[in-house]
Amino acid sequence: MRAGAGDRAAARVAALTEALAPLGAERADELSGAILVLPREALSAAARTARDHGFDLLLDVFAIDWLAYPGHRGRRFSVSYHVHAVAANERCSLRVHLDDGDALPTVTGVWPAASFMEREVYDLFGVTFEGHPDLRKLVTPEDLEGHPLRKDFPLGESPTLFNDGRFLDPATFRAGMIGGSEGRTGWAGGARKGVLSAATAPDAKGGDA
Amino acid sequence: MKPERRGQAPDGSDRGGPGRDAVGEFETKLMRINVGPQHPSTHGVLRLVVDLDGERIARLTPQIGYLHTGFEKTMENRTYQQAVTYPNRMDYAHAFGHDLAYVLSAERLVGAKVPERAQRVRVLLTELNRMASHLLFLGTGILDMGALTLFFYTMRERERILQLFEMVAGVRMNYGYFRVGGLAYDLPEGFVEATRAFLDDFPKMVEQYATMFAKNDIFVSRTKGIGVIPPEVAIANGLTGPSLRASGVALDQRKAAPYSGYEDYDFDVPTGTAGDANARFMVRFAEFEQSSRICRQALERLEPGPIKDPDRRISLPPRSELETSMEAVIFHFKLVTEGFHPPRGEAYVATESARGELGYHLVSDGGSMPYRVKVRVPSLVNLQSLEAACVGGLFADMVVNIASIDPVMGDVDK
Question: Staple B141 to which of A55, B16, B158, B403, CB 3.0 to 4.6 Å?
Answer without folding.
Answer: B403
